[in-house]
Here is the input.
Amino acid sequence: MVGVMTSSLLPTCEAQGWEVVAAAVAEKIAGLWVDDQMVFLGHTCQYSVNPKIKRFELYFKGRMWCPGWTTIRGEAETRSRSGVVTKTTQDFVRKAFQSGIVTEEQARVWLNSK
Here is the structure.
């Protein structure tokens, strides 16, 4: 009787396995969101990546902005988590060129310093 009672109090391998799977799933989902910063032409810029479901498919929305320098915002939406940061940055740089706050020469110097 004691053996039966003791065995029911011990965690099962299935329960431990489910906890490991649940933790891995939670970590993977949490990793879909990104909030970070980078330095671009001497200015600290912020960027974020947020997942969203659109027509039952996973998309990523990217935003980039540089507070204290410009009100320009780069934005993009793609199905690729890694690609959305590139497209968002391209959108920001394109808008910065168009507004005249970044010149081609400044961009070349910045690219060559990286």
